[in-house]
Each structure stands twice: as C-alpha cells, then as structure tokens.
Design goal:
The chain has helices at residues 13-24, 68-75, 112-123, 137-145, 147-162, 182-191, 213-221, 261-264, 269-277, 354-367, 374-377, 384-398; strands at residues 2-9, 32-35, 47-50, 53-56, 63-64, 83-87, 90-94, 97-100, 203-207, 227-228, 236-237, 242-243, 247-254, 280-288, 298-300, 310-312, 324-329, 340-348, 370-372. It contains 12 helices and 19 strands. It has 2 domains: 2-89 and 205-398, 3-Layer(bba) Sandwich (FAD/NAD(P)-binding domain), CATH 3.50.50; 102-191, no CATH class. Strands 1, 2, 10, 11, 12, 13 and 19 form a 7-stranded mixed β-sheet that branches. The chain has a 7-stranded mixed β-sheet with strand order 8-7-15-16-17-14-18.
C-alpha cells in the first residue's frame, strides 16, 4: 500500500496541469500520483502519426491565445518558438458554397437574393421582436436566429453532432454561441464585411513540427515517476480513500467520466441516478488521404446526406502534411477500411437538468474527499485552454 497526499485520475490537459500547479505551490513530487488508463498522456488531445504526419485523435484541438497565464504555463513545456500562429479560417458548407463562420456575420458572401431571404427571417426572429425567451432548444434556435438560419444550418448541424432529440437539450449553455446582433448582421450585408464578436479560436497556435499532443506528452514526462500509465481502476474504497487496494490518498481529484464510478464504488441511489442521466457523445475521427482544396482550417458540414459534421484540413495548419480528417458522431458513422479512432467520451451533452445533476454529484463527491474537475469531472465542454486555466486555479485553491 502506497500513501499519497493527492491522487489525480486522468492525465489529460486538466490532470497534467493540476499536478504541475500543485508542485508549483510546494507539494512534494512524492505526495502526488497521476493515474492514467492509456499508455500515453494527453486525453482527447493526444496525437498519432498517420500517413507520416500528426493527426489529433480526439478531433480538432488548438491552443487559443486569449489567456496569458495559460500561454505562460504551456510555453514552459513547449516554448513559443515551437508554435505557429494562425488567424482562424473556418467555413460552413451551405447552399452549395463555402461561407465564413459565423454564418450570421457573413451572409454578405451569398447572393443578394439569398441575403434578403436570411435577413427577412432574422427580422422576424423572436429575439428581434422581444418575444419571451423559450426553454426548448429547437424553439430557442429559431427565436435567436430566425427560421432560415435555424433550418438551413443550426438545427441540422446540432442534430448531426448530438444525434438525439434536440429538445432534450437545455438552453443554459447557448451563451457560448457567437454573438452577432441583427444590426451587425445587416451592416455586414450592406458593407460586405463581417461584424460582431470573434468565435473561440479566432487566433490560435499549433505546433510547427508536431501534433497538438506533443505538449501534453512533454508535460507528462516532466512529472517523472509521479504518473502511472495503463492503470485500469477496479475499485475505490471511499471509506479509506483507497484505489485498487494499492494506493491510498488524503484526497482524489477526478477528471474521469462519472459513469465509471458506478463500477468502482458504492454510490447512493439518488446520486447514481443523477450519474446515469448524464449524456455524452462519442465521436469517430476518420482520416482521408486526399488533400482537400481550400484555405480553411476546418469546415462545418450541416448537410444530413454526409455522415460527418466537420472536416479538419491538417495541411493548412500542420506543415508538410497531406489529407484531412473528419469528425462524426459514432451513432452516424458508416463502416470504413481506412484509419479511424473512436472516442466514446468526446463531448458532454448539455441536457435539460444537467447543471443541477452535476451539482448534486459534486456535492456528494466533496463529502467523500473527491473533487471533480476538467471536462468530465464537471461535465462541461471546455476547450483545452479553459481546462488549463481551471486546473491552475484549482491547484492554487488547495495547495
């Protein structure tokens, strides 16, 4: 039996950052253990070599530049000189053409007749008319964007990503969508240029000579013997805070999906019920060797005739590479003879009642010396920069 002050479950960006944040605040290396089920670190941000170039097996992951503290931390392991800086170019394949994202800021790229169609629908949207905010997801989308953008793009695209009844989704998370007002949309059509706030990753960094997984691999290597790979958790004794009857801790930090805990330990039925209600989307990442023509870094595909919902054109951000990869909800995937990586836990799903369920789960966990953090510990779809920022703050709060 080995005793530690802190055991961290998961060596993704959140777990790795937390471990280093604790070390930065004086916790001894011998007091920390990171347990990882895979043979390499990085979680959804891992990379593989496919067709002689890096491919990010979790889909599209990039380092946003918004948070200076995140950049300072990441550059400790991969200096800034090893990254290329990109001005985001993302497209939507709609009505037979490629239009810049976000759609409502770039309607001016369509014909005048199509612009009028969209503007007329937006002018009749509930938010423009000051109608009450609806609680149904699908109704909210129409209320916010108007019927044309909702039916052409937002609803079919979300149907592809989540592959479920959209009215099971809540509306509490939709503030994350790009915010463009009707006035800004109209100005963009009149002046022929975008208006409004840039979406996430408006400017992003990607390694010059590696996949995105390289920085997390280096971060893990810097932990030395404080990280253990290939660990399958079989049991967690919350009475003694012991994992697999082998490692005991004062406190556990959990970044693993809560569904796993149903197998690991006895959980009160009320909490177990909340855990079983949490939904996640599995995503298949498929490699296509043909190089796609165009300057976009990625392309959104709302058409229901295509299984995938996004293309990642790696030749436009990964120097010397060819081909591209696609992201497809595993429910929609078709069989393939090519390279594929399946991520059963890719996206947390923001179902109705999820915030209340997660709050109850975290309260139970805290009472048992377990803290949930990261994408799966909080069941939040956070980009890697937010995962790092949150884990840095968590380390400061406990050490």
């Amino acid at each position: 039996m080995k005793k530690f002050r802190f055991i961290i479950l998961g060596a993704g960006p959140s777990g790795l950052t937390l471990a280093h944040s604790l070390l930065d605040r004086g916790v001894l290396r011998s007091e920390i253990l990171v347990l990882e089920k895979e043979t390499t670190a990085g979680g959804l941000c891992r990379s593989a070599t496919v067709d002689d170039s890096p491919l990010d097996i979790g889909g599209g992951h990039f380092l946003d530049v918004k948070h200076a503290d995140v950049l300072d931390f990441v550059f400790r392991f991969m200096p800034e000189t090893e990254w290329n800086r990109h001005e985001r170019v993302s497209k939507i394949h709609l009505r037979g053409q490629m239009v810049d994202h976000p759609l409502e800021a770039n309607l001016w790229q369509f014909s005048k007749e199509t612009q009028v169609d969209y503007l007329e629908a937006i002018a009749q949207a509930g938010c423009v008319r000051s109608d009450p905010t609806p609680e149904s997801f699908a109704t909210w989308i129409r209320w916010k964007f108007g019927a044309s953008i909702a039916d052409d793009y937002m609803l079919p695209y979300n149907q592809k990503i989540w592959s479920m009844d959209l009215d099971l989704l809540g509306t509490y998370w939709l503030h994350k969508l790009p915010e463009v007002s009707f006035r800004e949309t109209l100005k963009s059509c009149l002046e022929g240029r975008p208006f409004g706030k840039l979406p996430a990753h408006g400017v992003f960094l990607y390694p010059k000579e590696h996949g995105y997984g390289e920085v997390w691999r280096r971060m893990a290597d810097a932990l030395g013997d404080s990280i253990a790979y290939g660990i399958s958790i079989e049991s967690v004794d919350l009475g003694t805070i012991t994992i697999n009857e082998s490692w005991r801790a004062d406190h556990i930090f959990n970044s693993a999906p809560w569904h796993h805990w149903l197998r690991w330990t006895d959980i009160p039925e009320s909490v177990a019920s909340d855990i079983r209600e949490l939904r996640n989307a599995g995503i298949d990442v498929d490699y296509v060797p043909e190089t796609f023509d165009g300057q976009a870094h990625w392309i959104y595909e709302p058409a229901q005739s295509l299984a995938h919902h996004r293309k990642l054109l790696r030749s436009n951000f990964c120097p010397g590479s060819c081909g591209y990869w696609t992201e497809t909800n595993s429910v929609r995937s078709v069989s393939t003879t090519g390279w594929r990586h399946t991520n059963p836990y890719a996206y947390p799903v923001n179902t109705i009642g999820k915030p209340e369920r997660v709050a109850r789960i975290l309260e139970w966990a805290k009472a048992n010396q377990v803290t949930g953090f990261g994408r799966w510990g909080t069941w939040e779809h956070m980009n890697s920069d937010i995962a790092v920022k949150s884990a840095l703050a968590l380390g400061r709060s406990v050490a």
